[in-house]
Design a protein that fits this description.
By secondary structure, the protein is an all-beta fold. It contains no helices and 15 strands. The chain starts with a strand and ends in a 17-residue tail after the last strand.
Length: about 190
């Protein structure tokens, strides 16, 4: 009987935790590297995690250690951290206070990190409602809009490498039959 060769591409888990009185999502990507053969249970595990540190900065943790990413000017925290399927790219929403406008922080920027550095920043004049990696971390899709009174969801698909707009769509995110496939992970 021949050897059985199994390759595991990855496992993604999102964990909710309470931090500073609010709900925060911690993104974890666990990847089993190498192969398993019959009688061989040796596989190397690599892990990338994005979380918020006590100052509101993003903290990237890997198997070899952790690094705090410098905060953006005016940043008070992060939300919706995620790790792409390429296992090298991470992202999060940067939260800002809007005194006199609303009593809670809003997401004003999407940051993408890879290889030890921030590689792209996406800004909006309104707020980010949701976002997701697309095409193995080569693209990001996001939903932006006003704080109140959105009539149609505005969504964009952009390349991470150069920030170029690939597609955009405005419509009802609740109507799965009419929305483009790249908006599947986006929500209100």
């Amino acid at each position: 009987m021949g050897q059985m060769d199994l390759r595991c591409l990855g496992i993604v888990a999102a964990t909710l935790r309470v931090a500073g009185g609010g709900l925060r999502r911690v993104a974890t990507l666990a990847v089993i590297a190498g192969s398993l053969t019959a009688g061989d249970a040796g596989a190397q595990q690599v892990q990338v995690q994005v979380s918020e540190d006590p100052t509101g900065a993003a903290r990237i943790t890997t198997r070899t250690g952790s690094k705090t990413v410098r905060k953006e000017p005016g940043q008070v925290g992060i939300e919706d951290p995620d790790v792409a399927w390429d296992r090298r790219t991470a992202g999060w929403l940067v939260m800002y206070e809007m005194p006199g406008v609303v009593s809670y922080p809003i997401a004003g920027m999407l940051v993408v990190w890879r290889g030890g550095a921030v590689i792209r920043r996406f800004r909006t004049e309104q707020t980010f409602w949701s976002w997701a990696f697309v095409a193995n971390g080569k693209q990001v899709a996001y939903h932006t809009g006003p704080l109140h009174g959105e009539r149609a969801s505005h969504c964009e698909l952009r390349n991470v490498s150069d920030g170029r707009l690939v597609a955009q769509w405005s419509g009802d995110l609740d109507d799965a039959a009419k929305r483009p496939a790249w908006t599947a992970e986006l929500y209100h």
